Amino acid sequence: MIKELVAIGGTTKEQKAISRPFxxxxxxxxxxxxxxxxxxxxxxxxxxxxxRGDSSNTNLWLGVFGLGTxxxxxxxxxxxxxxxxxTMVIIDAMHTRLGEKxxxxxxxxxxxxxxxxxxxxxxxxxMFVATAAMDIMVPLISNGITPVVLVFVALAFDWRIGLxxxxxxxxxxxxxxLAMHLxxxxxxxxxxxxxxxxxxxLEFGRAQVSLRAAGISGTEYQPLADAIETQRNAARRAxxxxxxxxxxxxxxxxxxxxxxxxxxxxxxITPGAGADPxxxxxxxxxxxxxxxxLQVIAEFGTTLRTTENELADIAEILDMExxxxxxxxxxxxxPDDPAELDIAVEDVHFQYRDDLPEVLxxxxxxxxxxxxxxxxxxxxxxxxxxxxxxxxFWDVTxxxxxxxxxxxxxxxxxxxxxxxxxxxxxxxxxxxxLEANIAYGxxxxxxxxxxxxxxxxxxxxxxxxxxxxxxxxxxxxxxMLSGGERQRVSIARALLKKAPIVLFDEATASLDANxxxxxxxxxxxxxxxxxxxxxxxQLSTVQHADNIVVLHAGTVAEQGTHQELMQQDGRYADFWxxxxxxxxxxxTN
Length: 589
Fold this sequence. Notes:
The model is unreliable at 581-589 (pLDDT under 50). This protein folds into 2 domains: 2-318, ABC transporter transmembrane region fold; 335-419 and 531-589, 3-Layer(aba) Sandwich (Rossmann fold). The protein is built from 21 helices and 10 strands. The chain has helices at residues 2-7, 12-41, 43-51, 55-102, 112-157, 159-206, 208-213, 222-269, 277-287, 291-299, 301-318, 383-390, 413-418, 434-439, 447-456, 460-465, 483-497, 513-527, 539-542, 562-568, 571-583, and strands spanning 343-350, 360-367, 372-377, 398-403, 406-407, 420-423, 501-505, 531-535, 547-552, 555-560. By secondary structure, it is an alpha/beta fold. The radius of gyration is 35 Å and the shape is elongated.
C-alpha cells in the first residue's frame, strides 16, 4: 500500500513531494516500534531481579524501562505529527491528480454511473485512503514490528521458547493472508454496492421533478431501493466475513502463544532441561505482549482491505487513457475566417465498446462553412452520436472528422471548444442567477450583450416572471425552470458565445409553437455567420435547411435540400409522409 500511495503523486517531482515526508514518517514509525520492543524487553531483567529480591538491580531496570517509555511517547508524538503532515500531502495530491485527470478524460466518459463513482472517490475515497496513513499505517507498523522484536528477545533469553515463536510467526502470517483472501471478495462487493448507492442517490436527487409528478417518493423509487438492499446484503456478508477472519486469526495467535507457554512450563518442570523458573516466568510475561499487537492487526484487516479497494479505484481512474491531443506547438491553428470552417465527416465508423455493434458504419457527408444542415433519421440511426463525435466526446473508431481540413484530433481541446457552441438535450444549469448562467457562454460579455442574447432566445420573459428577475437563482441543474426554459437559456449561451460552429440536438423539442418560432429565428441568425448542424424532427426546422442529411443504420441514406429529397421519393419522403399522416401537415415541394 505504501508504494501505491506514493505512486499517486504521478510525476517524479510530485512523487518526491509525497515520498519524502511519507518515508520519513515510516522510518520514525519503524524506529518507534523497535524501541517499544526493546523497552518491553527491559521488563525481563526487572522481573528476574524482582523475583530474586534484588531491589537495587530491579530499580535500575525499572528506571531503564521508564526512560524508554518516555522516549517512545515522545517518538510516538513526532510520528503521529509526521503522519498527519503526510495525510495532508496525500489528500492534496489525490485531489489534484483526480481533478487533472477528470478534465482530460473524454466527455463521453461522463454518465450517471461514472459521475457517481468519481463523486464517491473525490469526497469519500480520497479522504478514507489518505487518513489511512495515520489511522492504519502507524498501528500496523507498531503492532507488526514489536512482536518480531519480542521473538528475538525471547531467543536471546531462551532459544527454545524463542524458536516456538519463530516457527509460529509464519503460521500467524499465513492465517492472516488466508483471512484476507476470504474477506476480500465480500469487501469488494460492498465497495461496489456503496458506489452504486451513491450513484442512485445522485440520480434520485436529479429526477425529483419527474418522480414526484409520477407520485414516486423515497423507497418507492425501485432503483434506489434495490441499491440500498444490495448494499445492506453486501454489508451483512462483509460483516460475517470479517468476524470469521478475525476469529481465525485470533485462534492461530492464541494457539502459538499457548504452545510457547506450554513449552516454557514443560522446560521448568522437566529435570535436566536447564530452564530457570524465574527467567521462564519473566519470558512468559513478556511474550504475553506478543498476543495483543497481532490481535490489533487482525482487527485492522477489514479497514486495510477497504483502503486497498478505494486505492485501487483511484489508481484505475488515474491510469485511464486521457483524451490525446497535440502539444500547443504542433497543434493545428484555428482559422481566423469563419468561412473556412467547413466540417467533413469522412467514412466514420464508431462503436461505444468492442463488444457492441457499430453505431456509425462508414458515414460520410460535408457541412459547408456558413450553412445550415439538418440531420434526421429514425431513433438509433446515429444522429446524436455524430454531434458528440464532432464535439469530440469520443474519438472515432475509424475514419476522420475534419474542421477546416484538419482532423479534429489535431486541435487542442481548448481550440476545438472555442470553435463550438453546444445546445444538447441534457442541459445543465448551475445553481447561480439566471443572468450568470447565460454569461457562461461568454464570461467576457457585457451585461448589454447578455440581455441581447437572452432576448433573441426568449429568456427575457423568464426573467420577468421570476421574483428576483435576472438575479433569480435557478437551482442546481436549473430545477427551478421548466425543460423548455432551460433549453432557452442554453440557446442564449450559444448566441452569446458567437462560436463559428453550432451544434443543436433537438433544439426545439421542449418548446411551444411561439417559442419554437423564436428559436427558429435564432438558428437562422446563427447560420448567417456560423456553420450550424441541427438534429430535429419538426418540419419547420428541417425544410428550410441548406442541406439535409438522412441517416439510416449508421450510414448516410440520402442528402440534399428538402425539395430535392421529396422529389427523390425515398426514405426522407416516406418519413415526412408518416409525419403528415400523424399530424395533418400539408407538405409543399
